[in-house]
Amino acid sequence: MQRREINSLEAPSSAGGYAQAIELTNNSRMLYISGQIPEARDGAVPQDFVSQCRLAWRNVEAQLHASGMGLDNLVKVTTFLSDRKYALENREIRNEILAGRQIALTVVIAGIFDESWLLEIEAVAAA
């Protein structure tokens, strides 16, 4: 698979360590990951945002690994936050987990299905 980050000079530049677009060629597999929630297998949901965010990312990684992929295969992530006040913590944790990987990103402030969840993360990966 060949991957190219695209950041057009005719549009605003990205802020926060992501690519405006990702072009893939010669890929043979696509993985669409449904929204991963901040809930453990036993149903436990942490109370604080940082713990919930890390758990949701672990759940994303679990889906990637189940398909034989990893974080390097991510091309697009959409994060749904229950409140704008979590934006900075979300960015810090995402940047730590992605460790410099440039992917296409969207963050949406939205009502989340379960009121105890402070975020949900969906993703697209390719190999």
Structural write-up:
The model has no long low-confidence stretch (mean pLDDT 94). The protein has 2 helices and 6 strands, in the order E-E-E-H-E-H-E-E. The longest helix is centred in the middle third of the chain and has 18 residues, at 49-66. It has a single domain, classed as 60s Ribosomal Protein L30, Chain: A. Helix 1 packs parallel to helix 2. The protein has helices at 49-66, 87-98, and strands spanning 2-6, 21-25, 30-36, 74-81, 104-109, 119-126. It has a 4-stranded mixed beta sheet with strand order 3-6-4-5. The chain has 127 residues and is α+β, with helices and mostly antiparallel strands. The chain is 24% helix and 31% strand.
Task: Briefly say what this structure is.
The protein has 127 residues and is α+β, with helices and mostly antiparallel strands.
CATH homology-level superfamily: RutC-like
User: Structural class of the secondary structure composition?
Assistant: alpha+beta
- State the name of the first-level CATH class: Alpha Beta
Strand content: 25-35%
Choose one word for the global shape.
globular
Q: Let me know the largest β-sheet.
A: 4 strands, mixed
Low-confidence stretches: none
